TrEMBL record:
Cited InterPro entries: Metal_Hydrolase (IPR032466), TatD-like (IPR001130), UCP005295 (IPR012022)
Transmembrane segments: none
KW Protein transport (keyword) present: no
Organism of origin: Pseudozobellia thermophila
Similarity section: Belongs to the metallo-dependent hydrolases superfamily.
PANTHER family listed in its UniProt record: HYDROLASE TATD
Keywords: Hydrolase, Metal-binding
Keyword NADP among record annotations: no
This protein's name: TatD DNase family protein
Source superkingdom: Bacteria
GO molecular function: hydrolase activity, acting on ester bonds; metal ion binding
Coiled-coil intervals: none
Amino acid sequence: MEDKMMIIDPHVHMTSRTTDDYEAMAAAGVVAVIEPSFWLGQPRTQVGSFQDYFSSLVGWERFRASQFGIQHYCTIGLNSKEANNEALAEEVIELLPLYLHKENVVAVGEIGYDDQTPAEDKYFRMQLEMAKELDMVVQVHTPHRDKKAGTLKSMEVCLEHGLDPGKVVIDHNNEETVRDVLDRGFIAAFTIYPKTKMGNERMVEVVRKFGSDNIIVDSSADWGVSDPLAVPKTASLMLKRGIAKEDVHKTCYQNALDVFSYNGKMKEEDWLNPKGINQAQLYNDNSVLRGQEPRIDADQIK
Ligand SMILES: [Zn+2]
């Protein structure tokens, strides 16, 4: 237990995952997760659906994670895909300040471009202004199509709006984009996909080539084919392939903590001095149990 490496997955959509995933992640060393707000696979038709989703990210999901010994934080924003419904987008934008101030919200995100439409551009910029005003970190989703141009444009726009690149995490990088991101002083996050795109064998080579400064590994696991253990698996593959432990620690834990702890809401003490798991606890009268014995750690009173 003592020398098990601590892992942070700074991009994972736990709402779409099961309690088995939480258990497996905790067993693999994941101590904290960040859940970006995103689209749900099907477009929402009314602002109330966004409101309930945001509320679950700051409420129920955070509670659910705690029941498995994992600290849960989130990022709040209007995703690029749904920015294209402008009437709805206007209403969602109005809602954001209410949630950006909540206890476990560590950044504005995930925002950026999908198809790089004028509406996406408009709401991306609007949210960058919001982040600047609130002095918050930004988590940027880069497009999967036309990735290189979309990544460059995302960074240009951030700089144009006067954001500090050191407070902007550019996600879903690959070997084609990483150099540009690091050279401009942004944080480069890599999503490890189990079957296609960025696999963890490739990630090992990225760290070997570019080092561990300003590089973050995440799973982006969601409702699609994805792996919530991508970060711990990549960490162990890196060690196996001779990457120094220090570099693994930075890319799979420390760099994410450094940037996302900026507004003081995500703190290492949260998991270094755990209160213990008490599954007898309820959230609005609901528990994660289905009639089984709750797990209650004996040492929870500290
Ligand atoms: Zn995502």
